[in-house]
Amino acid sequence: MFGFFKKKQLLNDASLQIASSITNMLNVQLTLCRSSDKILDNWAIGYIGGFADGVLQYKGIGTDETGTAVMLMVFGSIFGDKKRVECFEKYVYLKESENVAVLEGERIAGNEAFSLLNGSSKRAIGLTAYCHGLNQGFRFRQS
To answer: What residues contact residue 69 under an 8 Å CB cut-off, 6+ apart?
Structure first.
C-alpha cells in the first residue's frame, strides 16, 4: 500500500522548511526522551504524527503528496532514514485502526502544535511528560 513512499520524495523549499521546523519544534522533547523506551510505542508515534499533522493543518497543507512527503521527512529526521517508512506506516495503520493510544497522543500533540503556532503557548511538553511518566494534566493511555 505504501510502497511508493520508498521512492525518493521531491520536496520544494517551502515543504523542506516546514519539515525542518516541525523537527526543530520537537527536538527539545526528543532530546529529553532519547533514553526512554517509550519513544517507539503507539502513544509516542501518535504524538509525533499528530504534531506534524497539526502543523500541516495550520499551514493549510492536506494529506496529499506534499503532506505525506513532509510527514516522511519528519519521521526520517526522528527515527532515521531506514525506519521512516516503517514508522510512518505504523502511525497511519494504527490511526486508521482507531488505536486509543495513537489517537490520544495525536490529539494532545495537535492541540500543542496549534497552541504554539497561534502564540497561546510557548512550549510543547506532552511527549516529555509521557516519556518520563509525568502527568501534567494529561491522561495517558497505552496499548
So the answer is: 9, 10, 11, 15
3-state DSSP assignment of residue 121: coil
Question: Is residue 63 helix, strand or coil?
Answer: coil
Specify whether the CB–CB gap between 46 and 91 falls below 8 A.
yes
Q: Is 131 exposed, middle or buried (0-12, 13-18, 19+ CB in 10 A)?
A: buried
The reported pTM is 0.86
**Digit-coded pLDDT (tens) for 99-116:** 999 999 999 999 999 999
> How many Cα atoms within 13 Å fall on the side-chain side of residue 93?
9
What is the Cβ-side half-sphere exposure of residue 67, based on CA atoms within 13 angstroms? 17
